[in-house]
Specification:
Layout lengths: L1 H32 L8 H31 L8 H26 L24
Length: about 130
């Protein structure tokens, strides 16, 4: 019983994720062909990372709670070691994405050196940085 549930998650999840990445790639290529510059802000990346973390957290919680939900509906289902490991792995990946996003938003990374003083020259000047 548990094997087909995990198989269904993998069989539907991976193609759906591939479709999302493909559509995002097509959108970027279309914008580049039209001459638009794609600049992704750190807030947008943090938002995406947070959404991915929430998705993984809820998926892991669902995998872990599947036997309990099955018993509520009268279906006999046992918890196997593979299901518990997969559930904890997915849940911990989601938690790490959420915690990492929160840490990055609250404590901006300070790098050594002053990168703001460097200027990128216009095309045709010959030197890169001064």
């Amino acid at each position: 019983m548990n094997d087909w549930i995990l198989g269904l998650l993998v069989a539907e999840g991976i193609p759906l994720l591939a479709l999302v990445y493909y559509l995002e790639h097509r959108k970027r290529m279309y914008l580049l062909e039209k001459g638009c510059v794609i600049l992704e802000s750190s807030e947008r990346r943090a938002e995406r990372r947070l959404c991915n973390g929430l998705f993984l957290l809820l998926t892991g919680a669902f995998v872990l709670s599947m036997p309990t939900l099955a018993k509520i509906f009268g279906i006999e289902a046992g918890t196997g070691l593979e299901q518990v490991l997969a559930g904890f792995l997915i849940t911990s990946a989601g938690l790490s994405l959420i915690m990492g996003t929160i840490l990055l938003l609250r404590m901006p990374l300070k790098r050594p050196g002053n990168y703001e003083s460097h200027s990128v020259p216009e095309a045709g000047r010959g030197t890169l940085w001064k």
